[in-house]
Structure formats: C-alpha cells, structure tokens
Amino acid sequence: MHLDELRDLLTRHARPDWSTDIEGVRLSKFESPYPPTPTTSGTVLALIAQGTKRLALGERVYEYRAGQYLVASVDLPITGNFTEASPEEPALGFGLTLEPSAVADLLLAGPDDARRIPGGPHSAIAVSDAPAELLDAVIRLLRLLDRPRDQAVLAPLIKREILWRLITGDQGEIVRQLGLADSSLSHIARAVHWIREHYAEPFRVEDLARLTGMSVSAFHRNFRTVTAMSPIQFQKRIRLQEARLMLTTRSADVTGVGLLVGYESPSQFSREYRRQFGTPPSQDAGHLSPSGRARAAALP
Q1: Could you tell me which residue ranges the HTH araC/xylS-type domain spans (predicted)?
Q2: May I ask the CATH architecture of the domain 2-179?
C-alpha cells in the first residue's frame, strides 16, 4: 500500500526539471531507460518507487529498485542510469538533500549514543530496503504538495523525521558521519571538496593528508574506502566530467577545454576522455547538449 500511494504522488507531482515546492525535495520520472551518464551524487537520500537504477562509483556498482533507497554522504563523481522504465511503468524516484547541519542538529537532540563517532569510514554510498516507517514519512511529506498552506510548518518537521529514520536505520553510520565534525568521513570530505574546487591544479598527496590530519598511508586507505578511488583517480574523474560539461557549449575548442581542466597534453586528454566516455572529445562534443546534461543530473 505504501508504494502504491508513493507512485501515485510521484506520478502526479513530478515535473520535467524534477523540482518541487518543498526545499531540498526532487522527484523524477522517466518513461524509457537511458545510457549510463556521468554526473555527481550530491549528499542525498534517493528512494525508488518504480523501476530500477544502477550507479557506478569507481569500480563499485550499486543497483536499487522499487522499495529500496540509496544514501550518499559525500558529493562524488558517479555514472548512473535507470535500466527499467517504460511509458506504461515509468521509473519514479524521490530525492531529499541531506544537509550536514541538519544531521548535526538532530544528533545533538538525540541520545548520547547517536553522537558516537564510528571507528572508521564507510563507503560514501550504500543501498538498503526502505522500512515502512521511512516510506510513511516520505508519503506524508509528499502529501503536502497538495496542501501548500501546511508546507511551511509541517515540511521541516517531516524532513527531520525522515532524517531520524535514516540515522537509526541500516545505513545510520554513513548518515551520522555526515554530521560529525570529527569523523573520518568529514575529514575525507574536506579533501574531496578541495579537489573539486582545485581540480585543474596539480597537488601532492602529502599536502592533502596534512589537510585532513592523517598520515599519508591512512589518508590513502580512508580516501579509497569512502570514494572507491585514489585521490589522483578522483581528480581525473572530476576533470573529465567538467570537460564534458564544457564541451556542451565549446564543442569547437577541444584543445582549449583540455587545458582549462588541467591537461597540458591534448593527446593525453583525448586518450583519457575516450577511455572514460567511449569516444574521443572531438566526436563526443557534437552529441552533447545542455538539456541532455541536465537530464542526467537527477540521482533519484
């Protein structure tokens, strides 16, 4: 019964741009599968009501389907697509942005054991079956789309409940790390943020390890645990995704795009781009469009 009502709400309220009138809530609807597409995860809860989605993070592959949810606690470069969708049974998804400040606030209000720092980092992405309590809270949140007058008061309360269900659920440690300033994940997230902001610049792993307060060996180990990549592989993935985004508006300047994202050698840029996306940038540029890129960005 929960999934039936959830499907109905998503079908009625999903918009082409996935936006809703409730802050942080996105709804997606796809009537056909689409090829695996590079995007970023964000820090998010993504719940499937119908269809199947597959995500790849480095060498790890995650698949989740109706009645399952995915949590991502670090904004990471991923490749994803819905593999099951049709006009008769469209893929339907719910997404909620997870704010570290909201997690921290809830942990402070909860019992002492909720603030226990986990012994080590976990992968930043995990999939679980959605319990009835979580589905019920999501449905009550979406019902508010039919009652605009109630949204300002009730939506924050229900989002807080959803967050608590995550914190106390199967993937609670992943979500709790998001709000704990001294957790290993928060330190790795600091390094991830630095690489994303300076992806075109060379860096020394020793400097990133110092930024996180870890030894080089511990930093390497924890970074790979969280992201499924080494720091250098992570930077390369970000560079190539940013290059692909730039090519949607600068298709005639492949060499310039390669330089902007940090490649000094056009041949190396073309070689690594082809390895990542299956076609060289000069060919791929002609098939890219801003609208297609935006379509791929929805994690739910």
Answers
A1: 189-287
A2: Sandwich (2.60)
